[in-house]
């Protein structure tokens, strides 16, 4: 992420980072349902209005912090170069499944808000999902080139199916 140039933009970004850290800390320690925007504001040392202005409501904050957590795991994926498709997919999905297992209540809330809620961060989450599907499609194509996947199989469709099974 490029650093904001103006002092005002830097302060705005710093406030948003404090809000996200506070939200994650409270969501992960006391649970999503038990956390309020007011508590997040107090933890971040800002007003509740500032939280809403920068990040939106509690549901939007959950999408925002989950998007970052998932993005970090995507960035840090360790994909074996010549492993079979099944071994590769297990290695790809293990960090996500471990994360969801560690935070089951938050994961359920995240999926509920992503699938049924309306948020300004949903588009960002959709873009991230599309990029991840593209990544999975690339793995399928590589395995197709090695003869592990039938040549007439649609790599994009298989990438989407792997993503759906994961989700």
UniProtKB/TrEMBL annotation:
Domain of life: Bacteria
DNA-binding region: 36-55
InterPro entries reported in the protein's UniProt record: Homeodomain-like_sf, HTH-type_TetR-like_transc_reg, HTH_TetR, Tet_transcr_reg_TetR-rel_C_sf
Pfam family, one: TetR_N
Claim: Transcription is one of the keywords in the record: yes
Domain HTH tetR-type residue range list: 13-73
Keywords from the named record: DNA-binding, Transcription, Transcription regulation
Gene3D superfamilies in alphabetical order: Tetracycline Repressor, domain 2 (1.10.357.10)
UniProt-recorded name of the protein: HTH tetR-type domain-containing protein
Organism from which the protein derives: Deinococcus piscis
Lineage of source species: Bacteria, Thermotogati, Deinococcota, Deinococci, Deinococcales
């Amino acid at each position: 992420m490029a650093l904001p140039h103006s002092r005002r933009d830097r302060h705005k970004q710093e406030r948003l980072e404090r809000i996200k850290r506070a939200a994650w800390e409270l969501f992960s320690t006391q649970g999503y349902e038990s956390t309020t925007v007011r508590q997040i504001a107090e933890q971040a040392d800002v007003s509740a209005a500032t939280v809403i202005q920068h990040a939106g409501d509690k549901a939007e904050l959950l999408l925002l912090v989950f998007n970052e957590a998932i993005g970090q795991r995507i960035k840090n994926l360790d994909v074996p170069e010549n492993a079979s498709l099944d071994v590769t997919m297990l290695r790809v999905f293990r960090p996500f499944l471990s994360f969801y297992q560690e935070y089951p209540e938050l994961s359920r809330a995240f999926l509920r808000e992503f699938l049924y809620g309306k948020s300004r961060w949903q588009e960002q989450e959709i873009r991230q999902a599309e990029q991840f599907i593209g990544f999975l499609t690339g793995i399928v194509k590589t395995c197709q080139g090695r003869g592990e996947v039938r040549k007439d199989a649609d790599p994009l469709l298989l990438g989407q199916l792997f993503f759906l099974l994961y989700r």
